[in-house]
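User: I'm new to structure prediction. If I give you an amino acid sequence, what do you actually give back? Let's try with this one:
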Amino acid sequence: MYKKNIYTVLRNEQIAPKTWVMVLGGDTQYLTAPGQFVNIAVDGKYLRRPISLCDYDDHSITLLYDVVGEGTAIMSRAKVNDTFDVLTGLGNGFWIEKEYRHPLLLGGGIGVAPLLRLARDLKDAGQNPVVALGFNTSADVVLADDFEALGLETYVSTADGTRGVHGFVTDILKGLEAGSYDYYYACGPTPMLRAVAQTVPCDGQLSLDERMGCGFGACMCCSIETTRGSKRVCKEGPVFRKEELIWK
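Assistant: Good question. You get back a string of structure tokens that encode the predicted 3D arrangement of the chain. For your 248 residues, that looks like this:
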């Protein structure tokens, strides 16, 4: 019989027009890699909501989520000391490639969330990644200050040009010196990941978080073609190496 894993809300507040941050206190022993996700049971919806981890420590996890439907709207109304049933440490997460000395972190929209923990772990591994973040407007920008607080070179682009580089994450790359990075980690919407995979010349990893529909692979919306056949992101994890993915 399934045993509930209860987490307690420590913080839940809006930080951008449609983006919220939630900190949950609970058992984090099964979290082993940046980019893993948790699966939250939302009362009254009879479903679980897979959400990528932004950060975690020995006793809590931090999530960023966009309010885009009924499930996340219910989450946004949660108060401090409310509880959720949470499955943790799901998915494969990012692999830290220590042989590369100049990593680049590429994030788009809510996809910037899992890159924060990855940035911390890369620094612990003796690396100082360059960070490039893309958003629609200046009001949508989140976590840029957190990356800068880590002492990382951080660039922002906005589609409407209200902050940083006018355009997209790939437009930021045009201003970076040739050879300033030798590997990348990317997370964001599919059009951004497609552009990164097709235009950034070095090897890298891509997290297809937006393909996580149910967290179990049961809905089959997350099936994606790879060089090793069809894989389900929810069951096997959202992170793929560049050479694994087949873009159509």
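You can read the tokens as a compact description of the fold. Here is one thing that stands out. The chain has six helices and 15 strands.
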